Amino acid sequence: MDVFKVSGNGPLRGEIEVGGAKNAALPLLAATLLSDEPVTLRNVPDLSDIRFMVEILRHVGSEVANPEPGVWRLKAKELTHIAPYDLVRKMRASVCLLGPLTARLRKAEVSIPGGCVIGPRPIDLHLKGLAKLNCKVEINNGYVHVDASAMRGGPIFLGGRSGSTVTGTANIIMAAVLAPGTTRIECAACEPEIVDLCNMLVKMGATIKGIGSPELTIEGVEALHGCEHQVVADRIEAGTFIAAAAITRGDVTVKGIPPNLLGAFLDKLEEAGVPLEITGDTIHVRPYSEPLKPVDCITLPHPGFPTDLQAQLCALMTQVEGISIITERIYPNRFMHVPELQRMGADIAIEGPSAIIKGASKLSGAPVMASDLRASAALILAAFAATGDTWIQRIYHLDRGYERFETKLAGLGAKIERLKDTDLPQELLLD
Ligand code: EPZ
After folding, report:
1. Among 104, 107, 93, 101, which Cα is nearest to 54's?
2. Contact by Cβ (8 Å): 36, 69
3. Residue 116 falls in the annotated catalytic set
4. What atom in ligand 1 is closest to the CA of residue 302?
5. Rg over CA atoms, the chain
6. Which residue minimizes the CA distance to atom 41 of ligand 1?
7. CATH code for the structural domain at 2-19+233-428
8. Does ligand 1 have an atom closer than 6 angstroms to the CB of 375?
9. pLDDT (tens digit, 0 to 9) for every residue of the chain, 431 residues total?
């Protein structure tokens, strides 16, 4: 397996282009099942999760071509309605097949995805939404069985105990666009990735009103036609690069990211005193010498502070004088990065859903373990601010959501290498 060797190497400098969003591309790929005509997606990031979703789509019968890097052409002519456990269990987002298979075939059998390190990943709201579309939904032997022979539009409140659900909203929108009648979704997720999905569905002939708001009104249509669509920029990748620039007091220009996709994050960084210059779709993180200020931050559904940037903010705040409080309202256990940051010398206490971060800590390189996608990114950011070498194992987590991450960061002057676990220092090989 691959490992990263990362060494603090001073301020990052240069320009970086943001890629297409993983969390948009995955539901967009699933949405191609809704038409029997070809759909072409552009700006699709080259990630293991994407390759995985394509494998599942091929399995249910989609004809898939990848004519050039970042471009995927899919045609879902003859489909089967079963998404098997051995495929679904490896990637949660495959639950996004539920909506389109139900809509297109009026039946679906999709394995229930497992949980993951950031916490249980229930799908009760997805199932509630389908039931409100007059589908018969049963769970047995680890599969969701949907009979949508009598599916029709209707009113749905899709909020749960943590507020809206992103892939739950995606699933219900994809089911409703082919459900006869009017569907009104309240407490829909407003994430930019949901907006992107709605925009593509409208290109395919769907009728969706209220796009980007928590209230969506969908008029079902008979069928959807093919289209071409460019995947929206990845706001989480962009935020990760901005945090990397900030933690190294660097001078980095992040290009291709509409700032409105990152409102709460940019606001929090500005509150901390990170100098940001925003021009169009370019965000310039300027060097600073003044100490940053500690922050109090709570993760919330969009447009609140994104949970997927919580770990990165934790890493940055370890370098800030004072006490920062970062509260995780979406996944209360999403602090797998904290014990690893503590190994590097960070002073962080977990109190319920909050991380109490006392800064500024002198971080030193250490052997650490990646645990989930965004926690892995946080460890790299901390390693940039640490003295000495940090060895990060299990970086396959990172490869799920960051394309050529080490190459892009090295291009900004970071000292980061992808090596084999056999290259680990002797004392680590005994682990
Ligand atoms: C999406 O996951 C993202 N994944 C996650 O990104 C992201 O962290 C999450 O949204 C929150 O923004 C993709 O888009 C592929 P949710 P999703 O349903 O849709 C609870 C990353 O790092 N809930 O919005 O699975 C749930 O437990 C990944 O890129 C229910 O209770 O998240 C959580 O507390 C990690 N019942 C909250 O809602 C349900 O039926 C938000 O979950 C569904 C969710």
Report:
1. 93
2. no
3. yes
4. 12
5. 22
6. 165
7. 3.65.10.10
8. no
9. 899 999 998 999 999 999 999 999 999 999 999 999 999 999 999 999 999 999 999 999 999 999 999 999 999 999 999 988 888 888 889 899 999 999 999 999 999 886 677 777 889 999 999 999 999 999 999 899 999 999 999 999 999 998 999 999 999 999 999 999 999 999 999 999 999 999 999 999 999 999 999 999 999 999 999 999 999 999 999 999 999 999 999 999 999 999 999 999 999 999 999 999 999 999 999 999 999 999 999 999 999 999 999 999 999 999 999 999 999 999 988 999 999 999 999 999 999 999 999 999 999 999 999 988 899 999 999 999 999 999 999 999 999 999 999 999 999 999 999 999 888 888 777 55
Residue 149: closest CA among 162, 136, 158: 136
Q: 116, 187, 198, 227: which one is catalytic?
A: 116
pLDDT at 123: 93
Q: Which pLDDT does position 430 carry in this prediction?
A: 59
Is the CB of residue 121 below 6 angstroms from any atom belonging to ligand 1?
yes
> Looking at this protein, which amino acid is placed at residue 123?
I
| 162 CA distance to ligand 1 middle (Å) | 9
Please state the φ and ψ torsions of residue 117, each to the nearest 5 degrees: -65, -20
For the chain, what are the domain ranges?
2-19+233-428, 22-230
Q: Is the CB of 330 under 6 A from ligand 1?
A: yes
Residue pair 9/405 in contact (Cβ under 8 Å)? The answer is no
Per the DSSP assignment, residues forming a β-bridge with 184 are 155, 217
The per-residue DSSP string of 67-97 comes to: EETTEEEEE--S--SEE-HHHHTT-GGGGGG
Q: State in Å: Cα 166 to ligand 1 middle.
A: 6
Q: What is the DSSP string of 150-164?
A: T----EEE--BTTB-
Alpha-helical runs (H) found in 187-260: 192-203, 235-247
> What's 233's DSSP letter?
B
Binding site membership of 329 for ligand 1 (Cβ less than 6 Å): no
Q: Which atom of ligand 1 is nearest to the CA of 119?
A: 27
Fold agreement (2-19+233-428, 22-230): yes
Fold of 22-230: UDP-n-acetylglucosamine1-carboxyvinyl-transferase; Chain (3.65.10)
Closest listed residue to residue 354, CA positions, set 384, 397, 302, 313:
313
